[in-house]
Amino acid sequence: MDRFAAVERELRRAAPHLLLDVVTAALRKQYDVQNVELRLADYGMTTLQVVSEAPLAEPVPVHNSPQGRAFGAQEPYVEHRATPGPATVHLPVTVRGDRLGVLSVTAPESSCSPAALAGMQQICEALGHEILVAGRDTDLYLLARRATRLTLAAEMQWQLLPGRSVSRPEFSLGAHLEPAYAIFGDNFDWSVSAHHLTLTVTNGMGKGMEAALLTNLVVNALRNARRAGLDLPGQASLADQAVYAQHRGALHASVLLLRFDLATGEVEAVDAGSPRMWRLRGRSVEPLEFDAQLPLGMFEETEYVAERLRVEPGDRLLIGSDGVYDSASAAGERYGQRALALSLSAHRFLPSEQVPQAVLRDLRDYRGATPLDDDALVVCLDWFGRQSSTGDTSA
């Protein structure tokens, strides 16, 4: 533990662009490793990109690569050599359920024991935390995530996001946006306290910069209201007033607001537009429909009302924007009519952070040669419930 604490101190003291140097020195000293390489997942979550001022190594795919195996399974993966010699170890770099990338090292067999792998994994967790902090001061890690250039609208949207996944004992949540490098109006946001999870999914009207600016206004208005202590209808009302004051009804935004009680599974919901939700309980998939209320910003001083439902341990919720459920096949059938439920059932054994991409891959197959003509956003939440002092799960 003292050795790990020393590494943490060195990481905190290091210049943001030298974090990998600190980790490399620590791993060489403690585990006699040789080569060390850090890769971060790109915005599309399809490749793992090398972190370097002048990257020389090619990206590797998230799927069907040794690094991707560690990234997907979220546990160390050891590539043993056929002949005696060092092994290559791939270690996931993750922060509170948000999967950032993979650290790969060449290590002697003596450093591949379960205890050694656990120690190296602990260092990776510290590295992940410092990468998030370093993003304030350097572009190094953000640049590594880019397989191609982002549009300005997409840059704004990705900077708004809290992360791509998060986990707590009570739940696990993952989300993804497509087209990742040209998204403009869809967005998601969450905040977790000791007692509640607040989750919002936003679909801003319009295209390009217009949609991105609108969504920025909505997300920040909702955050401002939430941080001021307003309840869910109050948050919707404040954001509604902000959008109307700016655009006088010419633009509006569709939002689904959800507030989960972590102790009981009680959920408040305000449905102000197009994002829709499905629930997988056991093997049964059903849409969860709410009373449709006006999108934010259509009229002055709209009043919103919260509805309630309850989630049970084992429930999986999936939220999709209209770019998902309204997408049509070549035959004209909407994806949300049947195919989305089939996709949710087919991927029921995947962890929540992998489900959004799997559903979006199914959506692309469903559309065939026709490219996406709108933003597509999928959020997946697995509810576990809170363990009581007796070990029972409360719902």
Automatic annotation (TrEMBL):
Its EC number is 3.1.3.16. GO terms for molecular function: protein serine/threonine phosphatase activity. Residues 168-383 form the PPM-type phosphatase domain. InterPro entries: Bact_Sigma-Reg, PPM-type-like_dom_sf, PPM-type_phosphatase-like_dom. SUPFAM superfamilies: PP2C-like (SSF81606). It is an enzyme of class 3 (hydrolase). Keywords: Hydrolase. The keyword Amino-acid biosynthesis does not apply. PANTHER family: STAGE II SPORULATION PROTEIN E, STAGE II SPORULATION PROTEIN E-RELATED. This is PP2C family protein-serine/threonine phosphatase.
